[in-house]
Amino acid sequence: MAENNEKILPTVQWFPGHMTKARKIITDNLKLVDVVIELLDARIPYSSANPMLKEIIADKPRVIALNKADLADPAITRQWIASFKAQGIKAVSVDAMTGKGTKQLVAITEELARYKTDKLLSKGAIKPRAARVMIIGIPNVGKSSLINRLAGAARTKTADKPGVTRAKQWIRIGKNLELLDTPGILWPKFEDMTVGLKLSFTGAINDEAVDREQVVGVFLETMGKLYPQRLRERYKLDGELPAEPMDLLELIGKKRGCLLKGGIIDTEKAQRIVFTDFRSGKLGLVSLDVPEKTAESEENEVAE
Fold first, then answer.
1. What is the pLDDT of residue 52?
2. What are 284-297's pLDDT values in tens digits?
3. Is 16:163 a contact under the CB 8 Å cutoff?
4. Which CATH class for the 18-189+295-303 domain?
């Protein structure tokens, strides 16, 4: 039994069968590429990093792209880039929708691939071949949107729901890169329940797969601690926010006119509004994961 001071979090279950197939595709094709681009959600870099992928990638050169940086707290994103740099990992913030940061991402990727293309030249290749790159990441992190931006055309199928991109595709990017898109892959069990919850917040886990009322409750509690003013401004709330998340949800529903017959609050509609506002950036620039700071990462952050 949990002690009184322990927070009991709702359980997020996620066991889609296609994830096993996705892992096999990535493993089978990893030997074909020179560099791996690991795409993370800039709002939740820790929670959107699949620990299974680290094992699969092993020593393959990689660069981390913090996508959806336009929705994240820029100060915290800089902390993450400094943290990765302290670990010897190159990272860059990007916005796949506008293309911001993509030129830097391409430059870093080409630099990391040079070891392989130079090696081929030293062995007698007439001209360097294009660097071969695999883009990996969890569902709904923006892989297809990034590839479309890099390719300059809608080469891959995109959708709001996780798990749409499944077939292997090689896509030429300029003269120096060939990109391999792979299916989004989640791991079969969350050791840390807060990770599963944050993936639910961003939509990486489909809303239909979770108890949305409980998940929204935890989200509002989290926002109330980290960004209370954002809630006040967005929903025109005065004074102290209600301590109970469900009371806060009902207040938001009332403010937004989510009413049923008899003046009852339509909490399901209020839930949809809250998550839509967060995922579209209407709650402001929000980051829910903060890196553990080391002396070296703090020094790198200052240097930036």
1. 76
2. 999 999 998 644 44
3. yes
4. alpha beta
